[in-house]
Each structure stands twice: as structure tokens, then as C-alpha cells.
Amino acid sequence: MVHVMDKRGSANNWQDWVNLILAVWLFISPWVLNFAGQQRPAWDAWIVGVVVAVLSIAALTQVQVWEEWINLLLGAWLFISPWVLGFSSDATISWNAWIVGILIFLVAASEISGVRQIAGRP
Prior knowledge:
By secondary structure, the chain is an all-alpha fold. It contains four helices and no strands. It has one domain (16-119). α1 runs antiparallel to α2 (39-61), α2 (39-61) runs antiparallel to α3 (65-84) and α3 runs antiparallel to α4 (91-119).
């Protein structure tokens, strides 16, 4: 297993905090945006939200590259989930998935890029 710290010697990166906030939003969004009664999009938000939150909390203590790769995949999944799960006709729910999915994907990509740059230094 590869353990990577940032240049300050800490595993506590801003990306992990951003993904944790996005995960909390994703988890509560079915109630806030009033789609908790729709099983597919609600369960999608709850499951992805919990997994991203758990990975973000774990990464706050010790960064492992696989955590960021899973977040990257979850962000991509969240983006395509309105089409795959059949709720793309609901604009509010779809835009929530698209925006949060893109943000999770970009934040994870940013952290992967940073980890690679740090790992490549002598």
C-alpha cells in the first residue's frame, strides 16, 4: 500500500475537505431538493454521498491514492447516473448529480495530480 503525504508532511489536503462537504450536500440533497420519495435518484445520492464521505474522512488522516481514484470514478458515475438510472428528465435532480459529479471528479483529479507531483520529487 502506498501512503503519500503532502509537501507539508500532512495528509490533510483541502481537496479532502471539499469532497467531504460535497458528500454531505449529496446526502442531504434528496430532502433539501424534495426528491427523497424517488427511489433511484435518492438512493444514488445517499450511497455515493456516504462512500465519498467515508473516503474523504479516511484521506484526512492518511492519503492513499486508491481513495482518490475511487472518488474520481464516483464523480464520473454520479455524472452519468441520471441517464443510466432514468431520471434525466427531472432537471433539478439531474443538475444536482451533474454539478456534484463534476466537482467530485475534478477535486479527486486535482488531488491525484498533486500526489503524483509530490511522489515524483526526490
